Amino acid sequence: MPDTVIATFQVRQLTILDPSGDVDLALLPKLSDDRLWEMYRFMVLTRVFDERAVSLQREGRMGTYPPVKGQEATQVGSAFALTKEDWIFPSFREMGVHLTLGFPIPQLLQYWTGDERAQRIPEQFKIFPFCVAVGSQLPQAVGAALAVRYRREPAAVAVFFGDGATSKGDFHEAMNMAGVYRLPIVFICQNNQWAISVPVKGQTASATLAQKAVGYGFEGIQVDGNDVLAVYAAVSGALEKARRGEGPAMVECLTYRMADHTTADDAGRYRSPEEVEYWRSRDPLLRMERYLESRGRWTPEAAGEVRGWATAAIDQAVREMEEIPPPEPAELFEGALAELTPRQKRQRKER
Amino acid sequence: MAQLNMVQAINQALAQEMARDDRVVIIGEDVGRDGGVFRVTEGLQDRFGPERVLDTPLSESGIMGAAIGMAACGLRPVPEIQFMGFTYSAFEQLFAHGARLRSRSRGRFGCPMVVRTPYGGGIKAPELHEESTEALFCQAPGLKVVVPSGPYNAKGLLLASLRDPDPVLFLEPTRLYRMIKEEVPEGEYLVELGRARVARPGREVTVVAWGSMLERVLKAVAGFDAEVIDMLTLNPLDMECVLGSVKKTGRAVIVHEAALTCGVGAEIAATLACDGILFLRGPVKRVAAPDVPVPLAKLIDHYLPSIQQIQAAVEDVLKY
Questions:
Q1: Is A7 within a domain?
Q2: Which DSSP helix (H) or strand (E) runs through A277?
Q3: Does pLDDT of B3 surpass 90?
Q4: Nearest residue on chain B to A142, alpha-carbon basis
Q5: Residues spanned by the domain of A271
Q6: Where are the alpha helices (DSSP H) in chain A?
Q7: What is the interface pTM, i.e. ipTM, of the complex?
Q8: Among residues A123, A110, A58, A55, which one has the least CA distance to residue A324?
């Protein structure tokens, strides 16, 4: 009886912009200097938004908030690869995607004050509401991809999730179905290495998350998630392939959650200062600044201007957000059903 | 008019709606080539193609989640979950997402899907193939729960469900699938959701039932002047109909094959106590399964409400 190797696999890892700011010219995606600067601006905007959101929470002006800090390259790079026709299924920590796509900033803040009116996504965005139940957005994104294909739309679906979600059954069911039907969907895993207190090695014995895609019959690629150019290149490539009808892909973005899981968490309880320090030196903003400096675009003054622009935009958004009147009690019933039941109507009257 | 059983009536409703509306897509395990394990979707893949009758991997949460995504993106999916006991794998998708998508997106995304699943005991099937846990799903305010009791109302309720803007859990009483034949009009007709019907008029006692139990209740009350209410929809509950009947009869018996505790009968009895106490001449009686897991075939007759138990309850309330 033969004992033969019948399958082997390889996993690619992509880095274009390294921590010192050097790029691999052979891999560099075609992006103008202006476009690179735009990427940088949105990374800064995301950072400033995030810092402000955390301080608003500390001041009691906002509810529990999950910081993005450290994941700006992953989110901004992915968002740059998306078109207006693509569907986006976020988890709850993709504020950088929303900001890059021009989502109204007051509304983004409003959600985290505990106001579900902010979950009504404006019509021009094909973005699903934030999904708090980890991983449960994945099968829904598969359904969106089925609908996109059924209607022959020239679009793809991008679904975002973290390393923790890869342990959930819904990750398996969604990846499996996407593979079976060869759907136009890209699974974007932000491996920020911590699911609250559990590190990746506590989620899986697999050497990478990207290789899980192999088991579902499509490619998974790992990219340096703090390298906005690598993320952009990998996600655009995968989305274009998906739009061409060549099936799904998974992009694992290896990044780091530089902050706590949420403002209610204290990451100091479970991870070492050395680890945090190491990743601080790999901050995605830093390496983009170094690269842009080498291109003659970044200077301390220009950086100051970008920060000033971002701060002013967030200041203005906070003011607008805080001027939104609180919801009326009847708002409880909004959208409970297309037409409320007689009992719901009575209950609404009684509020 | 043709005499159809429930399987044929449901199949006809699906075919007619698929012909009328190309957004209607069936998705589930074995629904295509095999026509479903109960043959409810038989012939539909041949007629409408594999893109509209989609055989899926064995993946209930995936089916339910995909259906939600399809519905939100403009289709009208009809996910079939092969048996009600398998909905538990898909519970999070249905309960935490499908039922609340309209609310949590504040109306941006609706979830017009009809989750079809066979339910109920008495078919000599393995474990978890005979569940009747409808009350679980009635706790989801954004989900309608519909239970036909015969071929005629199955077709009309399904057509109405398929045109409803919100998600509907459509529970098909497995035991009755081929037991009852009725006149079913060939053309389309809708049976309004959220409305109960008087299945048999009477004056002395109101007996409330739905789905699989209706046939048994009608047999049980043959010798009584009983009014039988067929709920048809369990969420929202048509309590106006029940209260109207009890106002006339002064007595109420509720029959369901789900376990007694926190069954839908509890909600009906509580509403009778709150809004109909002055109509009642005596206590409300519930005939239900005991609070144990659904047994296998050898014990099922000791579990499901029997004709004798229903008659005993009716006799009991008639003493007042």
A1: no
A2: helix A273-280
A3: yes
A4: B66
A5: 12-350
A6: 33-58, 72-81, 95-100, 105-112, 137-150, 169-181, 200-203, 228-243, 273-280, 284-294, 300-323, 342-350
A7: 0.96
A8: A110
Domain B197-318: give its CATH code: 3.40.50.920
Domain total for chain A?
Answer: 1
Q: What is the domain partition of chain B in residue ranges?
A: 2-184, 197-318
pLDDT at residue B252 in the model: 98
Please indicate, yes or no, if residue A81 is contained in any of the structural domains. yes
- The answer to whether A124 contacts chain B (CB < 8 Å) is no
CB contact under 8 A, A120 and B106: yes
Pairing of strands A249-254, A87-89: unpaired
Structure token digits, residue A328: 């009326």
Q: Which pairing describes strands A249-254 and B2-5: parallel, antiparallel, or unpaired?
A: unpaired
What is the model's pLDDT at position B44? 98
For chain B, how many residues are written? 320
Q: How far is CA A177 from the centre of its chain?
A: 22
Over residues A37-62, the mean pLDDT reads 98
Domain annotation covers residue A227 = yes
Residue pair A88/A127 in contact by the 8 Å Cβ criterion:
yes
Residue B1 confidence (pLDDT) above 90: no
Question: pLDDT tens across B112-138, in order?
Answer: 999 999 999 999 999 999 999 999 999
Average pLDDT score, chain B: 98
Tally of CA atoms within 13 A in the half-sphere of B54 that contains its CB: 28
Element (H, E) at B257: strand B252-259
Matching CATH topology for B2-184 and B197-318?
yes
Is A93 domain-assigned?
yes
B2-184 maps to CATH 3.40.50.970:
yes
Q: Which of A337, A344, A348 should we substitute to test contact with B (largest number of B Cβ atoms within 10 Å)? A: A337
Residues of B in contact with A129 (CB under 8 A): 101, 104-105, 108-109
Instruction: Give residue B202's identity as a one-letter amino acid code.
Output: G
Residue of A nearest to B97 (CA): A136
Structure tokens at B82: 């092969």
How far apart CA A282 and CA B53 sit, in angstroms, is 50
Q: What's residue A1's pLDDT?
A: 73
Half-sphere exposure of B276 (CA within 13 A, CB side): 27
A337–B57 CB contact, under 8 Å: no
Which of A85, A88, A140, A339 to mutate: most B Cβ within 10 Å? A140
Q: How far apart (Å, rounded) are the C-alpha atoms in residues A281 and A287?
A: 9
User: Which phi and psi angles does A26 have, rounded to 5°?
Assistant: -65, -30
Q: Both tokens of residue B313?
A: 């309850």
pLDDT digits (tens, 9 = 90+) for B149-205: 999 999 999 999 999 999 999 999 999 999 999 999 999 999 999 999 999 999 999
Q: Give the CATH number for residue A18.
A: 3.40.50.970
> How far is residue B23 from each of residues A151, B20, B26, B31, B49, measured CA to CA in Å?
9, 9, 10, 17, 13
Cα distance between residue B258 and residue B243, in whole Å: 22
* Predicted local distance difference test score (pLDDT) of residue A283: 98
Burial of A344 (0-12, 13-18, 19+ CB in 10 A): middle
Distance of residue B145 Cα from the nearest chain A Cα, in angstroms: 13
Residues of A in contact with B96 (CB under 8 A): 133, 136
